[in-house]
């Protein structure tokens, strides 16, 4: 039978690995180095004040100081660890009767101060000094401090005081002025992660490197708190050790993949993806405040990476190697002002969430403000929009405009009629010469005669190159070749939602094809290939001349002139069922070919929006005139044609009669050229 005492669980990590000398204390060199010098030189003060946040080593350093003071080899910087006093005060030792630790949280009254004053005058039993370690000294009342003020100011030779507190300002000035003050600091996250990794190696436990920054973050810079968190993870670890998933789930942090998803959605201005992430956060039971805090931390990392690209490698951002590469890629998709504006909005929203009854609503509003810089008319919103425009120009590779050539001599608006006779006829006025065509008189030469001015045509036109003199030749510049502007297929797909929105404002049917029946397949040179789910959708797209609409939208959004090619790709993702292709459609006939024109109103054959009734109505709009009937004017025929086109295409924004006049509609849809009617008198 096994007794309970034989299987006692081990001590906590912060107790098993508590430092025993100042050399083992890490991260507090500004405190340990002066104390070691004072101990070695035997210049120890009678009272010390150790202050700093919790878990930074105040009480541990006070015990090491008391151990070094009572070491048999004193004065010494570090205790020997061999004498009786060192063994009594060692880790797991029984303690010493001459080193008294007092918890001021429960012994803070005047009576406790009087009792301490009466016992302090007795000499130590076995050691050289009697040391009082008063923990949580800020809890001592002012009356109690005043009661032991005389003892602290003029103690007996065998007495030493060490006050430890997290709030040194609450210690009365009369006590604080009689002590040597040593402020302790929080531990940097990288130091905490490295120290915990070392302890895990000693324990023989596997820990994923991605989990260590989470432990350091949960500890908040406190080594004791970080070791307590690590103890919790070690207790729940399985055969694989401490994994990243275990740390994220147990500590309640947002997974990196979820933050990556929302940041990518912000970069692409994909509102559906952003609010989908928020829904995942709520459905998985995560705290919206914690998600907002993690998002703000991610934006902070991106701001630093945007300013210092090698921040992950240099340690400015505490992330793993693969996470650092993702941060650099995400930062390149934002502008500096855009990241700063998003971080400010999230920080303000996090402040508003404290005490809010509807944190999800506030989170959604924060994300909506981040997505819409155009609604922000302030300086930050304007800077964010400029960032997006500059980044789009950088991606598309639009070259800077070439310097404008020197303006040539202006041509006359109309020819000047010259009479055959030198003198003008009676009744005709002499033509007034243009000021621009009158050259100033040439300056006189040294002899007083006017200099001869060469003809402008002889000056402007260079002489032809002679044979055998290649240096006089002026080769003509080669025409610029079209290029994709450095865009990749990934960049095109990221900018594709903007192109689709631009198509929607031009032609609704083309927008339906793009959203329901097609996707971007490839980009080869300046040819953009779209894959359609079925042949009918592809034929409807091509016959409806929607490729030209998409081309114009690409020029406006991306700044590149690409030819749109449509293919049949059964694997294309479709958002809905494709429209049925028209039956009996014929390819469009180019204008001026002499054949019968296509459907009226500029509707291309095979347009799903056309029907027989609308076509018949359109034909009636352009019926021939009867004998003796006054032919309608061009404006009337254009108006009828536009109305027929609007009836045939009720879902097309371009078919609005009020937007375009009749002449413009004929010229755009049919390629017609309007000429003035010649009226015979």
Please outline the helices and strands.
Layout: H1 13-16, H2 29-40, E1 47-51, H3 58-69, H4 84-88, E2 99-103, H5 110-120, E3 130-135, H6 142-147, H7 149-153, E4 159-165, H8 173-176, E5 180-183, H9 189-203, H10 212-219, H11 223-236, H12 244-251, H13 256-268, H14 271-283, H15 288-307, H16 311-314, H17 321-331, H18 336-353, H19 359-371, H20 379-396, H21 456-460, H22 489-504, H23 508-516, E6 518-524, E7 527-532, H24 535-543, H25 546-557, E8 563-568, H26 612-621, H27 634-648, H28 662-670
Parallel strand pairs: 1-4, 1-5, 2-3, 3-4, 7-8
Antiparallel strand pairs: 6-7
Helix pairs in contact: 9-10, 10-11, 13-14, 14-19, 15-17, 15-18, 18-19, 18-20, 22-23, 22-25, 26-27, 27-28
* CATH fold naming of one domain: Rossmann fold
CATH class of one domain: Alpha Beta
Shape: elongated
Low-confidence sequence ranges = 398-483, 575-629, 648-660
